[in-house]
Amino acid sequence: MPDDVFHSGGFESWRTTVWGSQFVRSLGARFLPVPAEQDLYVEAGDVPEFRREVAVLRSRLDEVAHGTERPRTVEEHRHQIETRLGIIEESCRKALGIGGGVLIW
After folding, report:
1. What is the dihedral of CA 60, 42, 22, 36, to 10 degrees?
2. Model confidence pLDDT, tens digit, residues 24-82
3. Contact, 59 vs 29, CB < 8 A?
């Protein structure tokens, strides 16, 4: 992804309506619900596990789009979630490449 692309993990409301939703929690997510309460700091050693969590959500993308609050159509919501997961995945890839962590604020 080019450096000039917006690198957002989602809209501010997604802290609770998507990543912190009961549905995402029910899939076993433990990292992404954190921003519902505070910023998420994923330490370097936890990045592989965080990446696996993101992969689970990607593998269940249709369910996440249907199971979370949305102001748009399910298709638009799905596309937005897919885009944001891609941004988070890219952040994980970069973090793994330099031995760093990931911050979602």
Report:
1. -130
2. 999 999 999 998 999 999 999 999 999 999 999 999 999 999 999 888 899 999 999 99
3. no
Closest CA relative to residue 19, chosen from 8, 5, 6: 8
Q: What is the pLDDT of residues 12-32, one digit of tens each?
A: 667 788 999 999 999 999 999
Taking each helix axis from N to C end, the angle separating 47-59 and 74-98, rounded to the nearest 10 degrees, works out to 160
d(CA 53, CA 62) in angstroms, rounded, equals 16
Residue that has been written with the tokens 């031995």 in this structure:
99
Residue identified by tokens 């760093």 is 100
Q: Which three-class secondary structure string do you get for the chain?
A: CCCCCCCCCCCCCHHHHCCCCHHHHHCCCCCCCHHHCCCEEECHHHHHHHHHHHHHHHHCHHHHHHHCCCCCCHHHHHHHHHHHHHHHHHHHHHHHHHCCCEEEC
**The model's pTM:** 0.85
